[in-house]
Amino acid sequence: MLHHPAPRIDEQTIRALPKAEVHVHLEGTFSLLDMLTLAKENGVALPGPAATLFDISTHDTFRAPEVTTGGGAGAGSAGLSGFLRFLDWQCGLVRTADQAARVAYAFAVRQSASGIRYSDVIVNPTHWNAWRGRELALLDALAAGFDEADQDGLCRVGVAYSLLRAQSAASAEDAVDALVSARPRRVIALSVDGDEKVSGRTGEKFRRAFATAAGAGLHRTVHAGESSGPEGVWDAIDLLQAERIDHGVRSIEDPALIERLVTDGISLGVCPRSNITLGIFPSWAEHPLPALLDAGVTVTLNTDDPAPLGTTLESDWAVAAEQFGFDYADLVGFAARSIDASFADPDTKAGLHAELSTLAEVVPA
Ligand code: ADE
Ligand code: ZN
């Protein structure tokens, strides 16, 4: 790989690559139209003008008392905590099973439009406050939307049920016990997300919940090494049995951790644009993605929360290629790794690999 600015690869070429996305939050995929429609249906006032709804720092509703930064547009200037408050407000607009199914279907449409053929999607029910105590009903409603999308030939979806970093051990264990006994369709993994910096080290707190999930055959994917340092990633591996790390970019600060990721084949679901917008790294040039690749870590390239970040997967891949000097063969490699890293079933993976290798033989002009 070149790792210096290169000519931009056409987004159409990227869309054509059969691929998976493994680090994307359903909460981060509501379009402006989805949100306006839901707000109108529920008679809820917007926190600001439609044109600036995703400029999260401009709305008092999401601003934390400690956040004083005013500069810059987009989610970043509100920081991760303000961003998570925005997700609470937005997901609070989904109140009926039909609305939840519609959001799920729209997700599959959005993924399909980027040429994503399979997606693991993170769903954190704590953001969906109208469903408190009815989390399994929420999953059921979402599954109806994903099923319909599947029938329509759109992106196939597996759900990673996500705990929130700030929730208690007892509520996490209750949630996982319910999950394991009901085994709702489409749920294939347990996840944890939220702001690690605010919650501090939480590996011990969630150890039992993740052990229960592993014992029941659920996959494990853990947000770590985003607002936490390498210690968050160590905890994810040693205490939570993580098979994948969401972000994990700050692993680069610890050579022993890098060695462990490589030896154990634990992949990082990296989202460079999210990291830059949310202030984890100041610029693309300072992002450790090339260093992680050079160190031999398995990396996938994802969006995290594409709607409020104002992006698409093909745009992020194109910018990454331009910034880091990836050529077409490198992007084919990212597509192949995304399929391998996903929690799709073996037949889906084999089908996507077969299509990708047929396509990869024809290098676009
Ligand atoms: N939930 C949605 N986006 C997130 C992020 N970038 N970090 C932690 N939790 C999240
Ligand atoms: Zn994430």
Helical residues, percent: 40-55%
In percent terms, what proportion of residues is strand?
Answer: 5-15%
User: How many helices does DSSP assign?
Assistant: 16
Report the principal-axis shape. globular
The structural domain count equals 1
Which sequence of SSEs, written as H and E, runs from N to C?
A: HEHHHEHEHEHHEHEHEHHEHHHH
Indicate the mean pLDDT.
93
Largest sheet: 8 strands, parallel
Q: Which structural category do the helix and sheet elements fall into?
A: alpha/beta
Query: Oligomeric state of the chains?
Result: single chain
Query: Main sheet: which strands, in order across?
Result: 1-2-3-4-5-6-7-8
CATH superfamily heading: Metal-dependent hydrolases
The hetero molecules present are:
adenine, zinc ion
Q: Which second-level CATH architecture applies?
A: Alpha-Beta Barrel
Structure in words:
With 365 residues, the chain is an alpha/beta fold. It has a single domain, classed as Alpha-Beta Barrel (TIM Barrel), CATH 3.20.20.140. It contains 16 helices and eight strands. It has helices spanning 11-15, 32-42, 79-91, 97-113, 135-151, 169-182, 196-199, 203-215, 230-238, 255-264, 272-277, 289-294, 306-309, 313-324, 328-341, 346-360, and strands at 19-21, 116-123, 156-164, 187-193, 219-224, 244-247, 267-270, 299-301. The protein has an eight-stranded parallel β-sheet with strand order 1-2-3-4-5-6-7-8. Helix 6 (169-182) links the parallel strand 3 (156-164) and strand 4 (187-193). Helix 6 packs parallel to helix 8. It is globular. The structure holds adenine and zinc ion (ZN). Zinc ion binds at residues 23, 25, 193, 223, 246, 304.
